[in-house]
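Deliverable D2.4 — example input (structure tokens):
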């Protein structure tokens, strides 16, 4: 997945906002809270995708080749894809969508209602 494909996918998720920050990272939020990031943090220019995970997904994913605990965010159960192809695009999109749902669920009822998300 390219950064443009990542941005296009994230833009189709409900109630998302997008900012560029932290050295040109593409940061996607719902309700002001980050759920996914595309950056070039690390060696080379390869896009690196980071996303919030469930506890179980985090435990499983960090054991896979090409996936690491996300720098600065691992404590909050974030994973970073370090190698191209560590996850295929279908799986990556599913994890990003799950990250969106995890973060959305942490918003208050009022916030979810205001954003048009399921309450």
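Example output (designed residues):
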């Amino acid at each position: 997945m390219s950064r443009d494909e990542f941005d296009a996918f994230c833009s189709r998720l409900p109630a998302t906002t997008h900012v560029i920050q932290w050295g040109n990272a593409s940061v996607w939020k719902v309700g002001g809270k980050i759920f996914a990031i595309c950056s070039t943090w690390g060696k080379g220019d390869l896009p690196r995708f980071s996303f919030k995970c469930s506890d179980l997904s985090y435990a499983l994913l960090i054991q896979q080749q090409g996936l690491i605990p996300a720098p600065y965010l691992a404590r909050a159960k974030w994973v970073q894809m370090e190698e191209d192809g560590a996850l295929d695009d279908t799986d990556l999109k599913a994890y990003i969508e799950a990250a969106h749902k995890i973060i959305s669920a942490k918003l208050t009822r009022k916030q979810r209602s205001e954003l048009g998300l399921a309450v």
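The chain has a mean pLDDT of 93.
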